[in-house]
Queue: 4 jobs
Job 1
Amino acid sequence: GTVLARPAMQAPDYRLTAAVLDAGVAEAAARGAPVRMVLITNPENPLGIVHTRAELEEVLEWCRARRVHLVSDEIYANCVFDDATEFVSILDVAEDKYGADDAFVRTHVHALFGMSKDFGLSGYRAGFLVSRNEELHAACGGIHVGHGVSGDTQLRIAELLTDDAWLDDFLDVARGHLRAGYKVVADALDGAGIPYVRATSGMFVWADFSAFLAAPTREAELALFEEVSARARFVMTPGSAMVAAKPGWFRICTGWHAAKDLKDALTRAVAVVTAKRSA
């Protein structure tokens, strides 16, 4: 099949809607590729936004009307750091709306999760597919032959995920770090007048550095990336690697360094790019 990646953000007020999916279908049709599955990320990477229940219901209705599989990648589910923002799984939305015994819910709605984001355990190489589709289960059975998760790793993951007290403490601390890191980046960008998407989740900020490009091209974007990396010793992910709608968008990761180190790095990076305004 053909994978059609939609731009990470097409407008400053981007939200996931049926109209966005319709545009994707039109583009796929022009390529002669009928849409069989919709894959979303919730919370979104790189935008750091969380899809609301209403948005998920709209997408669910769209997929159900067309008998299209809906897969929700929820690997950032526990990275919501804004207290006013609620994450809800597509599995809960589907069962609440249509019932657990609905044929479409049983066969066409699936969720993905893993240990590498919420828990920083990328070395475990462990992920989860949650689906009630028995044919899909059978098709995935062969994956274990060459990509199995060791018994020891499975045991440790089971112990971790069933320790409710530890989970509550760990995730509370983790969200505090994410909140602090986001504030550092947001304050630096606000101070420099650099536009960005207001995030409520995740470990990244999606920022618009297009005003600092020598030209509105991918080549100029990569040149700015290399300059900031070399002069500020700060690495941002170019938008071209994230299917950005236009050159100049960058993803800034906020969740790794301590707040002070992140602030120092942002100060250097902002100094490099803002110097171009007077150049």
Job 2
Amino acid sequence: MTVDKAAKPFTQANTPVYRQPVDVQVVAREGQPLGLTWVLSKNPEINVYVQSDEPLTRANSRSVNADYLHQQLGRLGNTAYRLENLTTDIEGDPFIPSSLLNRLRQEAVESLIQQQADASEIFTADPIGVLDDALFALEYHSEGMLLDAPRLHLLVRTPEQLEAALEIQPASITLDYLDLYGLSPAVERIKEAGITARVASPRILKPDEQRVVNFLLRLDCPLVVRSGGLLEALQGRHQHPLIGDFS
């Protein structure tokens, strides 16, 4: 099996390799609109509030409970999200049809995607100028004396940031992409430029995600390891330095 074929499930996957955990708070009160607050567990500044157009009516038969809400709201399919925690505030005996939960869930996911896309645009202002200033500050002492072998190490999260980093020619570049798409060609580009390449692993790996471990090994570069399980899985199998980041 070729490397390209083995990596295809990650570089050309039909579903996201890694899903971001989200916390959902449900406020369901009889006679009031249904309100849902969605928050990215690891980036709480990314959050969404959606609510129904009409107030909730009284249920005639089955009452709403946390299990029912978790089942309906957890149907995130091929999105980049998974339901991590669900909290509920239920008053009275409100009726919540599954069609309403489906619609609000879709609205919340679309808003989360848009917020993350907008947030990534914030960091596009003159990256070359910022890095030039950083290099200048490293190269010269306050008295104008050249420092002994200053080195600049960069971490990038998008292909656009990688393009800017390659122009600077730092000592190393760490790829901290949201998912594994595009990692393999990015690593090759860094190596071809004569720069040390590193890859930051996902923070959470499920027990059945051995394919992710194998993919990281095939990148043939130092790794930033973010989970104890991955560190154990790499013992004796990885020929490059492993850097721990367990914050």
Job 3
Amino acid sequence: MFRLAAAQRIPILLIVTLWMGGTMVSQSAAPQFGQERPAYDITVDVDVEGKCYWGRETVTYVNDGRRPLREICFLLYPNIVTLWGVGLSPTLFIRRVEIAGTIVPFKVHRFTSVHIPLPRVLEPGGRLEIGIEFLGRLSELDPSATTLATHLAEQINQIIGPRRRRYWNPPTLLSEETLVLSDFYPVLARRDGDRWRTQVSRAVEDISVPRIADYRVRVRLPKDFSVFASGVLQAQTEADTDRIFQFHGRALRDFVIVAGRHYRVASQRVGPVQVQSIFRREDERVGRRVLEYAVRALTVYQSWFGPYPYPHLRLIEAPLPGGHMSVDGACLIALARAYYVDVHHPGKPLPRFIRESATLIEDALEFNVAYEVARQWWGTLVGFDPERAHFLDDALATYAALMYYERSYGPEAARREMDTQLKAAYRVYRMFGGEDQPVVQPVERFTNGFQYAAIVHAKGA
């Protein structure tokens, strides 16, 4: 699930201080195509040196509406982000479309949606397979854009900068020998009754909440890359200098892939669920703390919300741009590398102000892990409309993070987190001229991530 500009969940106290001084879903077998939910069969070949990828998907779709369909629509989320976020060129292109082995015409509207007229009407209950070939460009991210200092600077800019800020947080990126693919393929548009919803609001938060679907995904990368994804790894085969990884996943909200060199894995089981923390060698101490937080959060939430229905949950260190703490998907959460900082390591060169704020930085990471694990329920398992009911995931997940602190450390710790994470953010927002607003309003009315955090995360929780 991709976020155009993830809400700012760093404790506002840190910024001010620095600035001013259920039942398991079996994944062992291939997805059962032909059920009512959609199914994606995707092959993607990544050219790391060329910074691009080629893909083909076969989408199985059943008309579960009440009226016949005369067209099928898909959304191109990477283009929505690059065009609306910072006005750059599109990065995802459609090469051709096939239905029943025949090439059919299609229309791309403003580079953001694909409209495919059907050769014959699809009646209610009718089943259709559509083949789409696509080509994507990877956005290269300079390592300097992923540092903790850059993240903190972006936070300050959102507080004192222009009211309406543009962001660059591409869903498909390459940085520091790490690849992140989120919403990298044409995604079925959502339907509102019998109408396809192809207009996506310009928002500061989630823009992608697809329907639950089954996935079979094959990805080809150089042999020295480790690949992690939302689905379960079923097989891997070698092909010349590359390796092909095959994943399956059932009843997933989306499919995210993170790949890179030099990753290590620490894991622990919570009942039948395998929790994995994936990190670079030099960040092992922080990576193991992330595993500890995630295991604790999963245990707390299962006792309150019900069983986590998937066999694994992966949290992986990734180079994300300033201001963006995570890219979350079904069963996989990419956390910003900026916060994998061992502030207590005597040999690590760090600015003095960062070392002096060690406790606050570590708390920011723990709170974000607790929040993101909660989003596996609120936003992933329990879907929502990101334009009309965005608070149903963010406010509930923020509240759940406070529950995590209460269960793990006691009521006083939860109150302390409420003060530093939520109340302080709202107070600073108002102090800098921000107006009080209702939580329930169209998401496009929010001007930046800081305002969204103050109103939806803080006030909403």
Job 4
Amino acid sequence: MKKLFFISVLCLFGFYATSQVKLLDLSVIPVNEPSSDSITVLVQFKARNISDIQNIQLIFETQNGMADVLQKTAIITQQANTYYTVFENHSIPIENYNISLYCKMSNEQFALYSIARVVVQYNDNSSAFLVLNND
């Protein structure tokens, strides 16, 4: 009986914990060969509750919490039943919860950053974030 109760509690805790996850799977991938002075990287992640997102902060840092390499903002727009990220004058549709941002940075900025951070601000003023170490 104790085992059954323990398993039930674990299952309930598992459902509670998974309901709190709003962001997943952050990746930063160079998508072109560096030119003489810049490189474009694709920043991708998955987000739930797309309709509740107010903006997205993309932050590249040398150390956790520094925001000292590059910081940019994207917004979410809706046209008909499709949501888009608007970032650096480009609109990219959000499909299957996947958000993609093409970010141009200098070669020096690309070489300097150790941490990529995505902070999502929601309409209710709550936020969620993902961190990726560039090691």
